[in-house]
Amino acid sequence: MITLESVSYSYPRTGREAVSDLTLDLARGECVMICGHSGSGKTTLCLAAAGILEHEYGGKKAGRIVVAGKDVRDYRDLSDISSNVGILFDDPDSQLIFTTVEEEILSALERRGFSAEEVEERLARVLEITQLTSLKDRPPHALSGGQKQRVVLATTLALGTDILILDEPTSELDEQGTENIVSLLKDLKAQGKTILLVEHKYRKMADLVDRLVILEDGKIRNEGIPATVLEDEAARRILIPDFSGIRNGCVKKGGATPVIHTEGLTFSYGEGDALSEVSLDIYPGEFVAIVGENGSGKTTLVKHFIGLLRPGKGTVMVDGKNASTAPVATLAHSVGLVFQNPDHMFFADSVFDEVAFGVDNLGIPDREKVVSNALSSVRLSEARDLYPRWLSRGERQRLAIACVLAMQPAVLVLDEPTTGLDGSESREIIEILKQLQEKGHTIIMITHSREIAEECAARVVRMEHGRIISDICRGEGE
Asked: Are 62 and 68 spatial neighbours (Cβ–Cβ below 8 Å)?
């Protein structure tokens, strides 16, 4: 169904090949999972296989790509290719443009020329299988990251194409959401759909995958059935995260004053309470994981810590400051937030200038030393003169941490800091956070990964429907 023959590609204004001499075949009904470090060429491979590089991008191209028996150059345009291929990008926001979830899905169906009856049937079916029926009238921009991802997946699946190219379809989904998508993909594969899948959750996908392809620097490092590929230790570190030995014990609170204090915190976006009577104390030097299903209120909660949201009811105190009224710039001295998508933070022309922006904005002295120390802490000293968007996903994640770290907050809040990272990159991020904790920072991490929460954080706060349902401290010093 998809054939790549000696495919190479370089993006415009770059001399480096993003993929180099790739040859790969996908048969009907086969699921091939692509893995590798950030920057190894996974997304470029997806764009090539979908015909997007050929029809939408400049750059230098070589090789031949055949989709559904036809050279991609012989398709009229991407609309023509989309009759055979459905694609989900790794950034769901880039595919959401309409005012409601239902309109997003309908727009794709109506462009395909289905009858009114078939449109309604497909819409109802895909809303049900992606568990979006209750959200169909909600604006996509108001959804959580995982809910947005389900909307884009629903739009892709509604088209009913024989080929699915899915670039990290579960990266922002919680445990249950991931299991639901895996079950759905198994059903589609059984129907004969061909699936090209970029993912980092190999353990969840193991029963679905026929072949593994490990990319390294744009080339295929290893390829074969999973059991054979996993014999390679480097491949195993990429596919199966190991967080052993990271977790410290719980902080002994004694008579300490909380650095974060909420009491009766309630907040609404207008349709029911996103947070309801949340009371929470976090103490200096803690490493806390906040977990819960998509839409449970995790991100809404931490946005109150930096003044991006203000309480509808209740109290939020941050390092002794009333977060209900304190200016955002004032709170930024105490709390820094690393967003789920680090790319939303970047706009400067160099890594150094990106980190220096917050330092300059807050008037922090010793600019050169502060920025250099922040870059050193996240192992990016050698990248200081590079354009931020040239970095790999893992490097951009570390850069986002450096930007916040340079502003010298007592508390670092990270929203899904390992999203889109392989096993070894995820461990590197968590090791950096542990080192920052050991230097005296308080770490608050939102994560969908049960493994990361339980093996890396000494304290796990679980949320459900805008409430805290459990708060467990484990390890030494409990």
From this structure: no
Q: In which domain, by residue range, is 408 found? A: 260-473
Q: How many residues does the chain have?
A: 478
Chain position carrying tokens 């596919």 = 239
Helices 351-361 and 367-377 sit at what angle, rounded to 10 degrees? 120
Per the confidence metrics, is the pTM higher than 0.70? yes
Is residue 248, in this structure, part of any structural domain at all?
A: no
Is 158:103 a contact under the CB 8 Å cutoff?
A: no
3-state SS class at 324: coil
| pLDDT tens, position by position, 377-413 | 888 998 899 888 778 777 888 899 999 999 989 999 9
What is the number of other CB atoms lying within 10 angstroms of the CB of residue 203?
11
State the helix-helix crossing angle for 116-129 and 145-158, rounded to 10 degrees.
140
Cα separation, 4 vs 205, whole angstroms? 24
Mark whether 222 and 300 lie in a shared domain: no
Q: 215 with 67, same domain?
A: yes
Paired sense of beta strands 273-282 and 442-446, if any:
unpaired
The answer to whether position 251 is within a domain reads: no
Report the CATH number at residue 56: 3.40.50.300
Compute how many other C-beta atoms are within 10 angstroms of the C-beta atom of residue 292.
23
**Locus of tokens 């979006």:** 132
Q: What is the reported pLDDT for 141?
A: 84
Give dist(CA 218, CA 198) in Å, integer.
14
Greatest CA separation found in the chain? 72
Amino acid at 208: L
Q: Is residue 307 part of a domain?
A: yes
- pLDDT, averaged across the chain: 89
What's the one-letter identity of residue 425?
Answer: E
Measured CA to CA, the distance from residue 279 to residue 476 in angstroms comes to 25
- 411 plus 444 within the same structural domain: yes
pLDDT of residue 189: 93
Whether residue 247 lies inside any domain: the answer is no
Count Cα atoms within 13 angstroms, Cβ side, for 47.
21
Whether the predicted pLDDT of 363 surpasses 80 = yes
CA–CA distances in Å: residue 84 to residues 28, 96, 112, 139, 239: 12, 21, 11, 29, 30
d(CA 418, CA 427): 9
Q: Whole-angstrom Cα distance, residue 219 to residue 394?
A: 19
Written as one letter, the residue type at 422 is D
How far apart, in Å, do the first and last CA atoms of the chain sit? Answer: 56
